[in-house]
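Supplementary Text 2. Reproducibility record for the structural model of the 401-residue chain.

All settings were left at their defaults, and a single model was retained for analysis rather than an ensemble. We include the record here because the model underlies the residue-level annotations in Supplementary Table 4.
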Amino acid sequence: MLTGKKILLGITGSIAAYKSASLVRLLKKSGAEVQVVATPSALDFVTPLTLSTLSERPVYSQFVKNEQGEWVNHVDLALWADLLVIAPASANTLAKMATGGCDNLLLAVYLSAKCPVFFAPAMDLDMYKHGSTESNINTLLGYGNNFIQPGNGLLASGLIGEGRMAEPEEILEKIQHHFQRSLLAGKDILVTAGPTYEAIDPVRFIGNRSSGKMGYALARQLALAGARVHLVSGPTALAVPAGLSSFTRVESAADMYTACANRFPATTISIMCAAVADYSPEMAADQKIKKTDAALQITLKSTTDILAWMGKNKRKNQYLLGFALETNDGIAHAKGKLQRKNLDAIVLNSLQDNGAGFGHDTNQVTILSASGQEVHLSLKSKDEIASEIVDYLNEQIRDAK
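Retained model, structure tokens:
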């Protein structure tokens, strides 16, 4: 499964480091070449002899190899790898990764890495739930790193809860899934994200509560899968994801239609995640409208239905995925939209689900396909949901062949 793949395994100071030996063995058994880079404190928990025997390579933990001054080139290590996985990733290491700290070899390799990075946290419950740790994880996700969710169970402190490093078999599966996404590599994929703002005057607009987080997460995960991602975004406060082929900032529904219409003919897959306004003021005032005692009436006109236009104009070799945010009768409304707009699949969000929809860092969705398939994705971070949607798309392409 991983034959010929070069995996850097970073190990940090955590009792969960004992699991890393099993992970090395599983990676080797899958055909990967494995190079271990450990922090000095990691070697208090697992010996270099164990790791080097299993990996068939020396373990690196210092910048200098020997008394003669021969050094370990962290840049060469980073360029060698097809993937870097840090497991376990301690709270201390997560904080340094998030802020650019570089006081050991592993952190220097991480900062030099051009390849995808996965991290599997391991720490006690209160440390994992602390606001600073949550912030650091979100920062790393924003950098395009891949989060491997810790498990729930008995911890070294005796507490029971989240913080256990994912089992080696689960980490191996995540890595295998990453490389299985190769069917998306090199494909031109259009992603839309965020709201649109429809001007009333130079100051005011009609908009919605979309943050753009789901669309940006999808763009990140698709880029990590090797796709040529073209992101068209409405107004957001989010950082532009790394690895995009193009990024277009728009404001109104008309702007988004123009950008999508220009890009759509050359795309293989289009993922329409933006919350596009259905209506726009018929006339926008040139100057700020002053408040008076009289009621203000604004006449609205329908905007162009971008998704319906795409469904009408798509070719046989194009795949079109829409999104639906519903407040009631979600499945029925989503199925209706799927059929009316000639989509291949639709992702349903419901505002009735706690932690899902606008503004949240988490989401819970159902994917409905034109063939009648329903896939339910439970509440997870939006990056994890995006990763699972990318896996779903990969399966659809594979099944279509």
